[in-house]
Amino acid sequence: MARGGFKGGMPNMNNMMKQVQKMQKEMEKAQKKIEETTVTASAGGGVVEVVANGKKEITSITLKPEVVDPDDIDMLQDLILVAVNDAISKINALSDDEMGKLTGGVNIPGLGL
Predict the structure, then answer these.
(1) In whole angstroms, how large is the CA radius of gyration of the chain?
(2) Rounded CA gap, 57 and 75, in Å?
(3) Could you tell me whether strands 38-43 and 58-63 are parallel, antiparallel, or unpaired per DSSP bridges?
(4) pLDDT digits (tens, 9 = 90+) for 21-48
(5) Which helix (H) or strand (E) covers residue 95, if one does?
(6) How many CB atoms are closer than 10 A to CB 91?
(7) Residues 31-55 as b or e (16 or more Cβ within 10 Å = b)
(8) pLDDT tens for residues 60-75?
(9) Would you say the C-alpha torsion 69, 70, 76, 80 has a positive or negative sign?
(10) Which of 9, 39, 63, 99 has the most CB atoms less than 10 A away?
């Protein structure tokens, strides 16, 4: 019987290292794909629209003229906040989904964006 219960330990370790390197390359590709993706979120029936990229950066905010009421700035701020949070939530879900494909759904800290 081999020491430690391993049969020919080194070939298995080399195989494992190759698999880890392959997974790392796949994760880098997935990360790049996520970063290049954009999502759009809206609030108030589409009167506020926010676009974010995979780096969790807001790239644009569009307001329809009818939502701009100088007497109700609080509502406009709330709508923008809802749309921004929805955009970020969509990016998080996209990132979780893409990384989950590589990790088999196992949550590995530090792999998400």
Answers:
(1) 22
(2) 23
(3) unpaired
(4) 988 899 899 889 999 999 999 999 999 9
(5) helix 73-103
(6) 23
(7) beebeebebebbbbeebbbbbbbbe
(8) 999 999 999 999 999 9
(9) positive
(10) 99
Instruction: Note the maximum CA span of the chain.
Output: 82
Q: Which residues, listed in sequence order, are joined to residue 41 by a DSSP beta bridge? A: 50
Let me know how long the chain is: 113
In the chain, % of residues over pLDDT 70: 82
Nearest residue to 86 (alpha-carbon basis) of 59, 52, 60: 52
Q: How far is CA 51 from CA 26, 38, 41, 97, in A?
A: 26, 7, 6, 19
Phi first, then psi, for residue 55 (nearest 5°) are -90, 10
Chain-centre distance of CA 93, in angstroms? 6
Per the listing, tokens 């970063």 go with 35
